[in-house]
């Protein structure tokens, strides 16, 4: 079976620059033989984590909404792509709230020592981050990357690599940066290739 990838789009704009960059990475990972499900997170209907702590004792979330199926799917995926703009120096609210709901994985892994992802699955899983920021300032991606790395650890899908482009307020259109677009394609392709290789071993 082809490696199964989920791609999370954190930008509210389905045809914005983040989406354009993501589509290059998706072209790459599909060329490497993977199957991809894209999730436009701001379009989902869900509430942020309410800290009910049901997941302290159960391998599920007490809340039932559009996030629910992904809590199951994330146990089985072989790789993850997250494409997001920087907002207020971090991950935009909808995507961050989506990630927070994976506290189910945190509790299973760290509170009960019963991880939801099988060790053999974890061994080949990888995450690719694609991010853009409007500003040309130091530390623009720092907060976002810290949160991403924590999320990757929680869901046992290790942070593998990133494609980052700041200064978008001047660049305007990401397609005018062929090097960045190529980087996204190549990293998508490479991650797919590595996952497929490790799955075959
Ligand atoms: C609410 C909001 C907050 C933002 N905060 C930042 C920021 O902290 N740093 C930054 O570099 N750009 C920031 N931006 C700019 C976006 O990262 C930038 O416009 C990006 O290109 C949008 O991607 P899109 O084309 O996919 O919508 C912000 C944009 C919005 C709408």
UniProtKB/TrEMBL annotation:
Q: Which parts of the sequence belong to the NADPH-dependent FMN reductase-like domain?
A: 4-116
Tagged with keyword DNA-binding: no
Q: Where is the signal peptide?
A: none
What would you give as a GO molecular function for this chain, any one?
A: oxidoreductase activity
Is Flavoprotein among this UniProt entry's keywords?
yes
Alphabetized InterPro entries for the sequence: Flavoprotein-like_sf, FMN_Rdtase-like_dom, ISF_SsuE-like
* SUPFAM superfamilies, A to Z: Flavoproteins
| Cofactor(s) the protein needs | [4Fe-4S] cluster; FMN
Q: Which UniProt keywords apply?
A: Flavoprotein, FMN
Q: What protein family does this chain belong to?
A: Belongs to the SsuE family. Isf subfamily.
Q: Which PANTHER family match?
A: IRON-SULFUR FLAVOPROTEIN (PTHR43278:SF2), NAD(P)H-DEPENDENT FMN-CONTAINING OXIDOREDUCTASE YWQN-RELATED (PTHR43278)
Q: What is this protein called?
A: Flavodoxin family protein
